[in-house]
């Protein structure tokens, strides 16, 4: 257990990144399983609406952080090391895509993020050598520009046809990569900074909060909303609605994700890191946690309801707290008694086995998220 604890809590792991991942996973579970009213600042019962859309964007942003960390962190790999890292990322993308399709096949009525996640992994490859300023700039350009063609593509009748629905499931079109690559690039830029510095964490928190305030304030004062979205392409672009991929969602929810990462890094630089251990444990194995909760959903729904696709029937069972607490306890126990998450370990071993280090390379240190 001592060795497991050292791997979990000591460098090179970043406790704040694990905490942010854990929050993203729990947020996605909440968005799936809870019936949530629209956000009303005056009604605390609606504040859980913050999980809608933002959890998955946080998850995608953290994917960029992880990619940056495993490809050199502040000093991006070059030459043969980058080539090997790129090959491993490509293989992991293929494995994630396959796992995602298996989850889609369960019939659980959620938009599975893993196919889109896999495509984003592949799209990251040309940018592995870029430094933070260039990555942040590129993320900003993509985030502001791509919602416009995305709105046109989404309006195409093809997506309402059976073939369109199949293609959408295969590529995770509900998390459209032409826009969502902005979140990945922003995460990669974050992962290329000094994440052990309190100054970096404070800057991320301040910048993210400013972007979130800007995006949501513009939505509030400009008349953006569902009615405007239905009236024109410009209306469909100028929105902060969750899962809209509108420019205001990119700015607001993207800023929210950056702020959460900065806040989690700051929290885990204090004694609160010990209080956060259970959520950090979930975040240390996010793929396992995400897959397990959907598989458990499929098994319970099939057993109790006779079908996996009955969303309202499954929500009526009030499954959120039992499933979430069981997941947190299981991840914590696994972390302390066994170590790395099972799916994370399998994928890492497969990618390392398929793309091996040269015999002369010896031991090479690694950065972990």
TrEMBL record:
It comes from the Bacteria. The chain crosses the membrane at residues 20-36, 56-73, 85-104, 110-128, 135-153, 173-191, 203-228, 254-275, 287-308, 320-339. Keywords: Membrane, Transmembrane, Transmembrane helix. Residues 13-197 form the Heparan-alpha-glucosaminide N-acetyltransferase catalytic domain. Residues 214-351 form the DUF418 domain. The keyword Membrane applies. PANTHER family: INNER MEMBRANE PROTEIN. This is DUF1624 domain-containing protein. The lineage of its organism: Bacteria, Bacillati, Actinomycetota, Actinomycetes, Micrococcales.
